[in-house]
């Protein structure tokens, strides 16, 4: 994989079915683990690679080759590619293409959010058919309000792709916004979750396994969802749950946070698996261990 190029991948095309259906199939086939591809400088050094575009490419494509068969989702973190400029973005395009060629699904972790035509520009870049940066889904930030994300919701639906909206994150400062309450007592996090549920309702009513609008909910937020009136089961869409593994979240923590929505959840880890590299067999084994822990732990 590390010596291949994006040209070897099949041409992109608009998926014939909604992202939620395709994700449910991926979970059944490869498990619910999401592995983040986070090629920061320390990990590159640990792999014996230089902190440059060549090292970035070697790290990222070797990771995809080893991990795609063992993870429901591969999640490249856009920031670690962007830091290398246009050449780094070209590697991100290769990663998206390589995941597709391996038969996997990708979530580009870009956390974009803006208003109007600018939001449409981000949607075109990460969700529109024909864009080399368009994986199967993208993460979005709601700081400007959920209605500001309408162009992304519409573009994702039109192109058979998904979105994951920040709802309850584990960083302490996140609570200042996410836990705040409106005049009627509704928390911001609950409002975000209700918006996702509204967008998913039509897909689910039509028989989809789950909707294509997901949420990001940290593995270490404890009982925040119930305390804030966030009904994760009612969302009927996927839950990306970062913080599992090296960041301190356990399989039991994940189950405690998501409750009855566990069938929809994607616990996400990066260092917990990538730290086993650079040997492909060791990476695969680490992913398999994490996958077993998710399915068996806390039950």
From TrEMBL:
Gene3D superfamilies: Aldolase class I. Its EC number is 4.1.1.23. Pfam families: OMPdecase. It catalyses: orotidine 5'-phosphate + H(+) = UMP + CO2. GO terms for molecular function: orotidine-5'-phosphate decarboxylase activity. One of its GO terms (biological process) is 'de novo' UMP biosynthetic process. Residues 1-20 are annotated as: Disordered. Pathway: Pyrimidine metabolism; UMP biosynthesis via de novo pathway; UMP from orotate: step 2/2. The active site is at 111 (proton donor). Residues 32-286 form the Orotidine 5'-phosphate decarboxylase domain. It comes from the Bacteria. SMART domains: OMPdecase. Keywords: Decarboxylase, Lyase, Pyrimidine biosynthesis. Belongs to the OMP decarboxylase family. Type 2 subfamily. This is Orotidine 5'-phosphate decarboxylase.
